Amino acid sequence: MKKDPKIIVFCCNWCSYAGADNAGVAKVQIKPHFRIIRTMCSSRIDPELIIEAFKKGAWGVLVLGCHPGDCHYKNGNYKTLRKVKLLKRMLAQFGIEDDRLRLDWVSSNEGEKFGKVVNKMIDDIEKLGPLDLSYAETEVE
Amino acid sequence: MGKPKVAFYWCASCGGCEEAVVDLAEDILTVVDAVDIVFWPVAMDFKKKDVQAMDDGAIAVSFINGAVRTDEQVEMVELLRKKSGLVVAFGACAHIGGIPGLANFSNSKEILNTLYRDLDTVDNKEGVIPQTRTKVKSGEVTLPRFHNTVKTLDQVIDVDYYLPGCAPPPDLIMGAINAILKGELPPKGSVLAPEKSLCDSCRLNKTKPEKLTMKEIKRPHEIKIDPDLCFLAQGLICLGPATRSGCGERCINANMPCRGCFGPVGNVVDHGAKILSSIASILGMENEEAVTEEEVDILLDGIVDPGGLFYMYSLPSSLLKRKKSD
Ligand code: SF4
Ligand code: SF4
Ligand code: FES
To answer: Kindly report the CA angle at B178 between B175 and B182, in degrees rounded to 5?
Structure first.
């Protein structure tokens, strides 16, 4: 049986979550294979949480925040940018494909963009398939 | 009742933990007075069969150092577990994987091929790679299997306590031994060291600027390190903020930034991810609004090997544990 992709979308409360709301109000068509986790600011998304999402079965993780300059806490998203970029480099050393982690900016009135970014993520991740991390638990020769 | 029986054993380790026991200096005499050492391959002539002959639980405590990566190590630690009341993971490698754990960025095949076949200095025309079983004239010789993945001790057997550090410092070792002798141990599973971070006890913490930023990453060999200024403020990556205190700031006092041998502070699971987060947050933080994405990339280029640096001692105990291997 073909499995459906599982994407975790981290949204900050002030822009991107409102953007997701906006997508709903505007009835933007989005594939159902994602779950939103809301935090106050994108900078709350600790790299540890992203890795944990992968460990718990996410095929991909999408981090969404306010556009540069718009973070409710002024500078949170700049830190998010550096954290996600550095984490991507490190995940590559673990053999985890670059596409599995993505960062984008979505404002509260960008329902369209929210839909587009999420749909694109789902499509790309579907091509990659599930992230099998069981190799770390089993002994392979 | 006789003196409590104690065993020491080593797995994938460098011998430094054994040295740490010897380094107890005069204190070792107190230990030897109070306990009966029944097994210690590096120093005393007892054999595996001597351990096998003991009753289950006969050893009061086994101090086991080193990570686990071969069949032989698994067999020995399982045996010691059965024969011991308490098992203490002794040192960074048993606790969180240690330096041998960095091999989880590779796999057994790559390592054996490099070591026995591909290195320039290897003279091995037939390309012989060690096998678990080899037929020779006189019969068959065997070697323990070399596993694909380096494991921490608690990924193989149940562990009661952890003594962190590469190697654990004498005061913590004596503290642990005394606690065991007096029966004053903390809850099972505790790391026998403070919960707070190294920065908390570091003498350079007070020199840390209020708003700590790193303009760019420097590597220790690139600059003349100021011994009296927090390393982060000098652009050097120091794992102090995410690392457990208790070592006595050995590296800091030797003018080198911390590399995390004590493992993460209490409550943190993934040491590397945690320090990655702190470093990325403060790197290029000054005027961050004005920094372009390209400039961020250039700043990050300063961290040549993020995985190796952030997980220098803790890769096997991290959430991902190892590089994907297929
Ligand atoms: S970052 Fe390093 S040098 Fe600075 S206070 Fe912490 S442990 Fe000390
Ligand atoms: S400073 Fe860090 S790496 Fe050095 S001994 Fe202490 S905990 Fe270990
Ligand atoms: S509040 Fe949206 S990124 Fe900080």
So the answer is: 140
Fill in the DSSP letter of residue B222.
T
Residue located via tokens 């920094």: B291
- A38: β partners: A11
Residue A19 lies in a domain: no
> What is the rounded CA–CA span in Å between residue B310 and residue B270?
10
CA–CA dist B12, B322 (Å, integer): 17
Distance from the alpha carbon of residue A19 to the mean position of ligand 3, in angstroms: 12
Interface A:B, Cβ pairs < 8 A: 109
List the CATH code of the domain at B5-99+149-182: 3.40.50.700
- Inspect the interface and report whether the beta carbons of B276 and A135 lie closer than 8 Å: no
Closest CA in chain A for residue B268: A48
Q: Give all strands (DSSP E) within chain B, no chain letters.
A: 5-10, 36-39, 59-65, 68-70, 84-90, 133-136, 139-142, 146-151, 161-163
In a domain, A16, yes or no: no
- State the pLDDT at residue B87: 98
DSSP per-residue letters across B131-168? -SEEEETTEEEE---EEEEEE-GGGTS--SEEE-SSSP
CA triple A13-A16-A19, angle to 5 deg: 115
Sequence-distant contacts of B225-234: CB under 8 A, at least 24 apart: B225/B255, B225/B256, B227/B255, B228/B204, B229/B204, B230/B202, B230/B204, B230/B205, B231/B204, B231/B257, B232/B208, B232/B282, B233/B207, B233/B208, B233/B209
Ordered mean pLDDT values, 10 residues apiece, chain A (141 residues)? 91 97 96 97 97 97 97 97 98 97 97 98 96 79 48
Give the pair of three-digit tokens for residue B50. 């001597």
The pLDDT score that the predictor gives to residue B193 is 97
Residue A68 counted as domain residue: no
Selected residue of A90, A105, A131 to mutate for chain B interface (largest B Cβ count, 10 A): A90
Token representation of residue B219: 């590597």
The pLDDT score that the predictor gives to residue A30 is: 97
Q: Where exactly are the structural domains of chain B?
A: 5-99+149-182, 105-147, 198-317
pLDDT digit string, tens, across residues B77-132: 999 999 999 999 999 999 999 999 999 999 999 999 999 999 999 999 998 999 99
Structural domains in chain A (count): 1
> Is residue A139 domain-resident?
yes
Per residue in B45-83, pLDDT tens? 999 999 999 999 999 999 999 999 999 999 999 999 999
